[in-house]
Design goal:
Layout (H helix, E strand, L loop, with lengths): L2 E5 L2 E4 L4 E8 L8 E7 L6 E6 L6 E3 L7 E6 L4 E6 L8 E8 L11 E2 L3 E6 L1
Parallel strand pairs: 2-11
Antiparallel strand pairs: 1-3, 3-8, 4-5, 4-9, 5-6, 7-8, 9-10, 9-11
Length: 123
């Protein structure tokens, strides 16, 4: 498994921006190269936000964040980022970084998870 630690969450007003970071501690030859961001609001199920392949060439976003969020990665630093712009109150949630052998949008396909970072957007 991969050890993941998220950072960068906080409180922001609607229309503002935040950048989340996910640091990975990876063992040699680890096959969990796909990365994704999920989020979970109180009382709701965990939902997919964005995913990125090892090469960065395969990227996919949930419709709710498309055009506002950007996922990227720096493999040399074992980092994945989520740049969030034009934030809305409905983006309020705990955001989780996840790792998997396969590129997926389904939480159950991911075998490693971070502890989460809170994002709160006020109107």
């Amino acid at each position: 498994q991969v050890s993941l630690v998220e950072s960068g969450g906080g409180s922001v007003q609607a229309g503002g921006s935040l950048r989340l970071s996910c640091a990975a501690s990876v063992r040699t030859f680890n096959s969990e190269t796909a990365r994704a961001w999920f989020r979970q609001a109180p009382g709701k199920e965990r939902e997919f936000v964005a995913r990125i392949s090892w090469s960065g060439e395969n990227i996919y976003y949930a419709d709710s964040v498309k055009g506002r969020f950007t996922i990227s990665r720096d493999n040399a630093k074992n980092m994945v980022y989520l740049q969030m712009a034009s934030l809305k109150p409905e983006d309020t949630a705990v955001y989780y970084c996840a790792a998997s052998r396969y590129l997926s949008s389904v939480p159950d396909d991911f075998t490693s998870w971070g502890q989460g970072t809170q994002v709160t957007v006020s109107s």
